[in-house]
Amino acid sequence: MTQPVDCADRATARLSWARATTGDAGLGLVRASFDAGFRSYWRTSAGDAPGAPTLIVMDSPPDKEDVRPWLRIRELLESAGVRVPEVLAADVEGGFLLLEDLGVDTFLQVIDSDNADVLFDTAIDQLLRLQALPCPADLPAYNEAMLAFELRLFDEWYLGRHLGVALDCGELEALDLAYRHLVDAALAQPQVFVHRDFMPRNLMPVPGNPADGPAVLDFQGAVRGPIAYDPLSLFKDAFLSWPETRVDGWLDRYHARALAAGLPVPALAPFRRDADLVGIQRHLKILGIFARLHHRDGKPKYLVDAPRFVAYLDAVLPKYPELAPLAAIIDRHVRPAL
Predict the structure, then answer these.
(1) Residue 263 sits in which domain range?
(2) Which among 224, 233, 277, 283 is least buried, having the fewest CB atoms inside 10 angstroms?
């Protein structure tokens, strides 16, 4: 199928494919969710079969988001017992998938201080299965180049483009040394299968089957990388913050369960240090990504959460004197803008 040249043509192609695939000529589509990337999700509405269950159409424009990595990682996760959305039909060339409808709410909408312990325990169930998955030889590595590229998003997009900051030579050297420390720390961790965005927004309660644990979404960027990355992402979320004492308790709970499952986690103290340092890398990266979404992609809403990541950094950086120059840059350039 040829990629449509504009949004109107794409919408027509999406609806035509959905109707042909379901055999329902009166089927409608309504927006189901919004994504930071180029994919979009659409829920079927009643057509010629008003009693039929709703389904989800994933629209992944082939020139922007190849759907094949999503399908491949989905198959790998399913083979490890991880709950993932069922694929009912696929047009790989056109970039359309027909998926089961898991409902409206993710963990982000349903989690609160009362149920967080239970929900996070079910999330850990899935995470342990995911991390135990053998990494295929051709799975991308979360290597030095990728880690450094992500860190550079912070100074290029957040400091430079968003705040208009031009660092002097001393600050650039200090930032390079901090980045070197963070990259080395990530590479020194035990390396496992990493989702890269394992957080409540990408976990969905499965209707009628709570024992199965949540369904895992948005996994196409999986890599072989540091074992502390996904648990840190789960508890220090991009859109939801928790008290440090609860985060510490959940990290300890994950660590105990990972040890019992035979995963290659280090002892608790070095694991907590690993989580802190890989968290700093992630927090800086996300600040850069949110600024890029605003300035390049016209999606300003994500920057509202920038103070959350500065708060995460504030809680961790004082523990590590070797990162004091990074803390100074944030104090000098970021904090006044907030």
Answers:
(1) 107-337
(2) 224
